[in-house]
Amino acid sequence: MIRDMAREFAETALKPGVIERDNKQHFPAELVSQMGELGFMGMQVDPNYGGGGMDTLSYVIAVEELSRWDASASVIVSVNNSLVCWGLNEFGTHEQKEKYLKPLALGEKVGAFCLSEPEAGSDATQQRTTAVDMGDHYLVNGTKNWITNGGRADTYLVMAHTDREKKHKGINCLIVEKDMEGFEVGPKEDKLGIRGSDTHSLNFNDVKVPKENRVGDDGFGFKFAMKTLNGGRIGIAAQALGIAAGAFDLALEYSKIRKAFGTEIFNHQAIQFKLADMKMELEAARALVYRAAWEKDQGMDYAASAAMAKLHASKTAMFCADQAIQIHGGNGYVKEYHVERFLRDAKITEIYEGTSEIQRMTIARSLR
Ligand code: COS
């Protein structure tokens, strides 16, 4: 039911304006509200706080389907669900859930997750942003980079160092509101792909954040970020899977219409072999993504499975998008056939929420 609903929404609501949004870097605000009404913005949140109370597999299927047409819309969903709502649902206080989680889960507000900095991307323990303990509040100073939903969010989960001596155990996660004094949204990034999503740097200049806005105990911020990212990586793996599936479907369809050398190009073995490889990689990616989701739902340690799912699915998205362009020939290189966008959108899945190199590190560490 979830797959059907997400697929129908993707085809009828996301597909029609997707090329224009990509061209103009237009954030789909109205579509985000509609996705909120359909329950896509807080799928795994406790129903007492406005969520759908669903499992990870359901969430993954929804992200996969939305990504078949619009990876910009699906990253907005993925960040809101797995990086913001999940963390607050799991580790937030009742008051934080009432005040911040509920509107996020209902899609009335949008969330952002702020870990990356100009000099702390993959090396995430090296946070330069500071949150000085002032008794009843923290004073936050610093800069965050490449923040998805950066200019559109209302609620920001911000990682910052309170005690450098304690290294990563001195990092806290604080809930920052858009309207807090000293908080400033920097210029919008002009990106290769997922151009309908909204990516900004953020500046914090003496932002006073009340103590009650800290998520978890003092020093829990880095662990919070890592645990949250483990689930986030499953979301991005699902996004990559959807891009791969979308590219495959379009390539298959086109191969049965386009004629060359007196027959539909599907009948040429050169094309069949490409489609066969795409199908195999796609199904392997799907199995890894669903398995990681299932492990999470079973309460197992899923960090390595999430990393494998993301690593493989992102490679598959790049591969399938590239092959889909090749099958489309010249038409694949122009925007109206969609597949060139899939290639541009696919690339980010090898970078954000942990690069492919970080995923390999995570997998290797699980083998120790
Ligand atoms: N899940 C849960 N905990 C994790 C974890 C994971 N995937 N990865 C690391 N941790 C924990 C470690 O267990 C350690 O905890 P303890 O101090 O209790 O032992 C702590 O985090 C620090 O880890 P570690 O000592 O391994 O630190 P390193 O600096 O060597 O490595 C990595 C940390 C590289 C794994 C981490 O910085 C990372 O994932 N970087 C990528 C960040 C990222 O995804 N950025 C994208 C931007 S967010 S959109």
Description of the structure:
By secondary structure, the chain is α+β, with helices and mostly antiparallel strands. Helix content is about 50%, strand content about 15%. The strands form 3 sheets. Strands 2-3-7-6 form a 4-stranded antiparallel β-sheet, covered by helices on one side. Helix 5 (about 70-90) runs antiparallel to helix 6 (about 95-105) and helix 7 packs antiparallel against helix 10 (about 340-350). The longest helix is centred in the middle third of the chain and has 35 residues, at about 220-255. The chain binds coenzyme a persulfide.
SSE diagram, text form:
Elements: H1 2-14, H2 18-24, H3 29-37, H4 56-67, H5 71-91, H6 94-105, E1 111-114, E2 130-133, E3 137-148, E4 155-161, E5 171-177, E6 183-188, E7 199-210, H7 221-255, E8 259-260, E9 263-264, H8 269-297, H9 303-328, H10 339-348, H11 356-365
Parallel strand pairs: 1-4
Antiparallel strand pairs: 2-3, 3-7, 4-5, 6-7, 8-9
The structure holds coenzyme a persulfide.
Residues 115-116, 121-122, 124-125, 168, 222, 226-227, 229-230, 303, 352-354, 358, 361-362 line the site of coenzyme a persulfide.
